[in-house]
Amino acid sequence: MTKSLTERQILFIDNYTGQCQGNATQSAIKAGYSDKTAKQQGYQLKQLLSLEIEEKNRQLLNGAVPLAIKTLRDLIEDSKTAGSVKLGAVNSILDRNNYQGTTKIEDVTHNKTDEQLQTELQHLLSTIDKPIIKIELDSKTDEDTKH
Question: Are 7 and 15 in contact (CB under 8 A)?
Answer without folding.
Answer: no
